[in-house]
Amino acid sequence: MTPDEPLISTETDLQSGTDSLLQVQSLFCERDERVLFSDLNFSLQAGQLLQVLGSNGSGKTTLLRIICGLNDSYQGNILWCGEPVREQRETFLASLLYIGHRVGVNRILTPRENLRWSASLHTPVDDSRIDSALARVGLKAYEDVPCRNLSAGQNQRVSLARLLISPAVLWILDEPFTTLDVYGVRELEQLLSEHVGKGGAVLVTTHHRLNVPCAVERLNLDGVEQPA
Ligand SMILES: Nc1ncnc2c1ncn2[C@@H]1O[C@H](COP(=O)(O)OP(=O)(O)OP(=O)(O)O)[C@@H](O)[C@H]1O
User: Fold this and answer.
1) Residues with CB under 6 A from ligand 1
2) In what residue span(s) does the ABC transporter domain sit (predicted)?
C-alpha cells in the first residue's frame, strides 16, 4: 500500500451491510465497585474522528483498552464491520493501531530499529519509508540514536511515526499529545486529518482541543458538557 492509497475499499471491507467500522453496544464496566460506564453505545465510521473526553478517572483509557482487547472485564458487544471482534480477533487486530499511554518504544533500540520492529508485526517496510516517516515527525538525524538518549517528546514522536508506516484503518490513540511541543501537536493534528481524509477512522482521548480541518465527533464519559 502506498501512503496516499485509500485505506478502505467499500466493496471488500464494508460488505457486512453496515456503514460502521466499529460499533460499541450496551457497554458496561465497573472497577473497584464503581461503575465507569453503563449502556454505552457509539459507532465509528470510515472517515470519522471520535474524541473521547472525560475527567481524570472517568474511564477513557479503560474504554480504549477494552476495545483493543487488553481488558475483558466488561459486558456488552464490540463489533468490527458488523461482526463481533471476539469472533475475528486477528482480522480486527490487523486493522488496528493502538498507541497507549506508555509510548511503546523500546529504549535500547534506535528509532529506525523500533519502526522496523513495529512494521514487522504487520507488513515490513523498507528503510527509506521508515526514514521519511521519522523525518516527517522531526527526527531526521536521530534515526540511529538509542531511544534512551532521546527526550520524552522525541520518544513520543518515534511512537507516532508508526502511524505513517502502518496499514491500519483504525487508529486508537490514548493521550497522544501529552509530551509534544506546538510543532508536534500541529503535525499530529495534520496526520489525524489526513488519515480520516483517506477513509481511516480515529478514536482518540485527549484533553487537548483538537484543531483539525475535519469534523470531530465527541463522546463525553462524564455525560456533561466540558468547557472548551
Ligand atoms: N489496574 C487497575 N485496577 C483497578 N482499577 C483501576 C486500574 N486502572 C485504573 N483503575 C480505575 O479505573 C478508573 C478509570 O481509570 P482510567 O485510567 O480508565 O481513567 P481515565 O479517564 O483514562 O483517566 P485519566 O484522564 O486520568 O487518564 C479509575 O478510577 C481508576 O482508579
Assistant:
1) 31-32, 36, 54, 56-62
2) 22-228
Between vectors from CA 137 to CA 133 and to CA 142, what angle results, nearest 5°?
85
Domain 20-220 has CATH 3.40.50.300: yes
Beta-strand ranges (E) seen in 124-209 are: 170-174, 201-205
Size of the chain, expressed as the number of residues it contains: 228
Residue type, 115: L
- How far does residue 30's CA lie from ligand 1's centre (Å)? 10
Give this prediction's pTM: 0.88
Closest Cα to atom 30 of ligand 1: 57
The domain spans of the chain are: 20-220
Tell me the per-residue pLDDT of 65-104, one tens digit each, with 9 for 90 and over.
Answer: 999 999 999 999 999 999 999 999 999 999 999 998 777 8
